[in-house]
Amino acid sequence: MTDLVIRTLDESDAHLFDAHPDPLGAREGHRRTRFRSDWKRVALRDGNVVARGAWWGGPDDSEPININWFDVAEGEEEAGAELLRTAPWQVELELNLPGGWRDEPALKAAAEARFNAARAAGYELLVERFLYRWTPDLGLPERPGRLRFGAEPDDAVFFDALRRIHSVTLDAHSLRAIEEGGLDRAAQEELDFFHWCPSPREWWQVARTPEGDLAGIHIPAHNPSGPTVGFIGVVPEHRGNGYAYDLLAECTHFLVEQGAEFVTGGTDQGNFPMAANFAKAGYPVVKERINFEAR
């Protein structure tokens, strides 16, 4: 077997990235994604692309925050691993897969080749997630009318709410943050992400009971790919009342009122209550995401 050549691309050879099959439909999923040419890398053997990766970040980020497009040719798992391990950025890997990919032999084989390459490069599985996409033809979810929603300008209110919400969280990313730096770190990471999003800070909302008690928060947001349910959370003392659905319904209505023609969302597959709320609100699963973390 001939030697492997790994290249970081630029504008002159960015076309090489497209010289590879796309069995998992990544290109369609990234129609709205903007990738920098110099954050794309390919592995070539005999001049043929046998692995490729596109690292991604926001338009103002100096370094990528994840790699969310990664492909490996059949039998070239080691080439994919070398592409990852030699990259200057050791960040989280996101693999977006078609729903039901495990039931299709070709899709399963393609996905597992990428998993094997990631593990060989030192990545470990963090979580599997459901990705949702609501469109107007599905109908707006009914607002139960049990909570009172409003803007809250004080970040400290959201920080305190996030600490309380994460004290009993099922979210894998939050649990990792708590393990590494406690509840303060988990709450601050959420706030930092919401501030990073290009949507207005004024969109963030608190939800209160008719008696005035804080029940939870919801963050309608725009990420660089469009309108999304940024965060849904109920404080521990008000769990068991089904309020997460109320928050999700309100978040959806809010985004539509701001002109959204679709709304995306996601939750960990192990977060059964939130997955049930997305289903109740009429959000279909459109993809599954597998998150690997660099070790």
Question: Roughly how many Å is the radius of gyration?
Answer: 20 Å
Number of beta strands: 12
- Helix count from the secondary structure assignment: 7
Assign the structural class, choosing from mainly alpha, mainly beta, alpha/beta, alpha+beta, or little secondary structure.
alpha+beta
Shape: elongated
**How would a crystallographer describe the biggest sheet?**
8 strands, mixed
- SSE succession: EHEEEHEHEEHHEEEHEHE
- Give the neighbour order of strands across the main sheet: 1-2-3-4-5-12-6-11
Mean of all residue-level pLDDT scores:
95
The helical percent reads 25-40%
Taking pLDDT < 50 over at least 5 consecutive residues as the criterion, the unreliable ranges are none
Percentage of β-strand residues: 25-35%
Distance between the termini: 29 Å
Q: How would you summarize this macromolecular structure in one to three sentences?
A:
The chain is of the alpha+beta class. Helices cover 31% and strands 30% of the residues.
